[in-house]
Design a protein that fits this description.
By secondary structure, the chain is α/β, with parallel strands linked by helices. The chain is 48% helix and 17% strand. The chain is built from 13 helices and 14 strands. The protein has helices at residues 15-28, 45-51, 71-84, 98-103, 112-128, 169-178, 193-205, 227-243, 252-274, 278-284, 288-291, 299-311, 325-343; strands at 2-7, 32-35, 58-61, 64-65, 89-94, 131-132, 134-135, 140-141, 151-152, 162-165, 181-184, 214-223, 295-297, 316-321. Strand 11, helix 7 (193-205) and strand 12 form a beta-alpha-beta unit. Helix 6 (169-178) crosses helix 7, helix 8 packs across helix 9 (252-274) and helix 12 (299-311) packs across helix 13 (325-343). The chain starts with a strand and ends with a helix. The model has no long low-confidence stretch (mean pLDDT 94).
């Protein structure tokens, strides 16, 4: 399997430590680094800097929020990063959620899948070197009634892979139909069809197969002997995803775990969180909502989890490392790469 790591949050890790961590990941043979974007650092700036600090590791936005930018600017930024990195860039896109889109960017969170589809289509026009002329429900280029004209971006036609971060069934189907890759979260190899069935259906309707799409999923990793302590440490993060990563009405993470068979648990945790009972919400998280959505435990247990991901058809794992500080994370990453070699 391919491997990747994530970076994000200058407030927690200074950029020098981040660069050194990515350099070490490159030496260890990690295939790609994804830059997170939520309400802190943006997805592009760190990759532009890392392009000049690394030689081989792939650089991807994981994810770039489509509601924060017009599609043409997404294309221009992507083409610039592809040039700066000598062809190592991958564009990861996602719709984010209503709290960020409406609260931070002031953009209505309506028709998110339509917006995603139109964005991908316009961005690909830019990548192909075509004049950008588009008539959609959310985007019209050139602007109707104005003085603009269709413009071709000042780049040669360039291949840039597009990965989509999707969770809802219809969005997963669109990923299967059109994307080069999938950036999956809330994924369990024990319940793989909760996501993959929808991606497969979309792919088959488009005359494709799962083999045409790189399946890249997030995999939180904790390695040690005290399994119960590691589970306890993870509960608050799961509760946050169930209660805070979305609104009371729209929470894709909550829905995804519901499709994996944890519907009652997910709704109960969300209710406690929204009522302000955050510690109680964390205590409500069952062990299985931690252990089945990542790799946790002794080295042998973690290795067995990696094998489950491989057997489920996953092509690439993005590691989220439960270790304090860049030095500890680097040491854990080295151990992970050794365990993966055993799986291969």
């Amino acid at each position: 399997m391919k491997t990747s790591v994530t970076i994000g949050g200058y407030a927690r890790h200074d950029i020098k430590s981040t660069v050194e961590f990515v350099r070490q990941a490159e030496k260890l043979g990690v295939n790609r680094v994804w830059s997170a974007e939520a309400w802190g650092q943006d997805a592009a700036t760190s990759l532009a800097f890392l392009a000049g600090q690394t030689d081989r590791i792939g650089l991807g936005t994981g994810i770039m929020q489509i509601s924060a930018r017009v599609p043409s600017m997404i294309a221009m930024t992507s083409l610039s990063l592809q040039a700066l990195s000598d062809g190592r860039f991958t564009l990861g896109l996602g719709v984010s959620g209503p709290q960020v889109v409406e609260g931070l960017h002031g953009v209505p969170y309506d028709l998110p899948l339509t917006r995603l589809r139109e964005t991908v289509e316009i961005v690909r026009m830019g990548f192909k070197g075509e004049k950008i002329s588009y008539q959609g429900k959310r985007h019209t280029l050139p602007r109707a009634g104005g003085e603009g004209k269709a413009i071709r971006l000042d780049f040669p036609p360039t291949k840039v892979p597009i990965f989509l971060a999707t969770l809802a069934p219809r969005s997963l189907e669109y990923t299967g139909a059109s994307a080069d890759g999938w950036l999956g979260t809330s994924f369990s190899p024990d319940h793989a069809e909760a996501h993959l069935a929808h991606i497969r259906a979309g792919a088959e309707r488009a005359g494709r197969s799962l083999g045409d799409i790189e399946l890249n999923v997030a995999c939180p990793v904790s390695i040690g002997e005290d399994v119960e302590r590691m589970i306890e440490a993870r509960r608050p993060g799961v509760a946050f995803s169930m209660g805070a990563m979305g609104s009371a009405i729209t929470n894709f993470y909550n829905d995804a775990l519901g499709r994996a068979g944890f519907g009652d648990d997910a709704k109960a945790i969300q209710g406690l969180w929204l009522a302000g009972k955050r510690e109680e919400a964390a205590r409500r998280v069952p062990d299985a909502m931690v252990t089945r959505f990542g790799a946790l435990g002794t080295p042998q247990m973690v290795s067995e989890r990696f094998r489950l991901y491989k057997d489920a058809g996953i092509d690439s794992l993005t590691f989220r490392l439960d270790a304090d500080g860049m030095k500890a994370q680097t040491e854990m990453l080295e151990q992970i790469m050794d365990l993966l070699r055993e799986v291969a």
